[in-house]
Amino acid sequence: MPHALASAPAAEVDLLAEFVEHTERLGLHGTNQHKAARAFLKRWPDPQDWTAQPLATRLALPSVACSFLMFLLLGGHLRPGYDYLIRRKLPSFWRELPHGPMAPDLERFLRAAADLGFTERTRTAVGSQVVGRLLIQTGRCLDELTDRDLDQLLAACRQRQQVDGVGLRHYSRAVHTTRQVLFHLGVLEDPPVNAATLLRQSFTERMRDATPALRPTFVAYLDRLLATHARSTVTGTASRLNQFAGHLATVDRAGQPRRP
């Protein structure tokens, strides 16, 4: 008599049925999108096989199939490659995100970015442009992202610039902001290298009212703050901190005994 399996194999996910439920939940009515999903799965029963197609083929996917594609991406069923992700906008990202497994990670990222002083526009742009694409492509959660993942995204941007001549400086800025937030959350161990060298070098001058003994401590604090917070937040903090340093210097002088 054959031995029983220690654990039964997991049942295959019925992606088409889940997609139908998903569209009904979002109020997306239309038989064509269901037909497109059915045609996609007929050709690629395992959606990840689609990623083996040339980039031109992936980019030529009919627009009617976009709803199903977003369902696969945000549901963790498809990792299409950074070459595809940086060439395609995700217009329904925020609308469909709450119904997928990535929502808690994005909410956590947005809260941390808000704590660091980034505007709502910057937070949402970076959230979809970088963090969302990282979670889609890696298939991992926010705490498992690494510097290498960010480097791979930037490498894909550079490759596109070489091939298509498309400048992607906005990705570079968004990746830097992402590094700041992930470092603040403890996801990344090392602070991001900040290009604002002049701003860092001016901290000693900006702490001009501090005593020589305390000035290095204030400068070190601002330098650390620059690795996580928005530049406007740091400059405002530097001004207030210098005022506080001046107050401490005054109190310190007032409390010193006079020399005979």
Could you write a compact summary of the structure shown?
With 260 residues, the protein is mainly alpha-helical. The protein is built from 14 helices and no strands.
Can you describe this structure?
This protein is mainly alpha-helical and 260 residues long. The protein has two domains: 16-185, no CATH class; 197-254. The protein is 62% helix and 0% strand. It is elongated.
Mean pLDDT: 85
Radius of gyration: 25 Å
Level of helix content? 55-70%
Largest sheet: none
Strand content: under 5%
Q: What distance separates the N and C termini?
A: 103 Å
Count helical runs.
14
Instruction: Report the structural category.
Output: mainly alpha
Could you say which overall geometry the principal axes of the C-alpha atoms support? elongated
According to DSSP, the number of beta strands is: 0
Instruction: Return the string of H and E elements.
Output: HHHHHHHHHHHHHH
Number of domains: 2
Name the poorly predicted regions. Answer: 1-11, 197-201
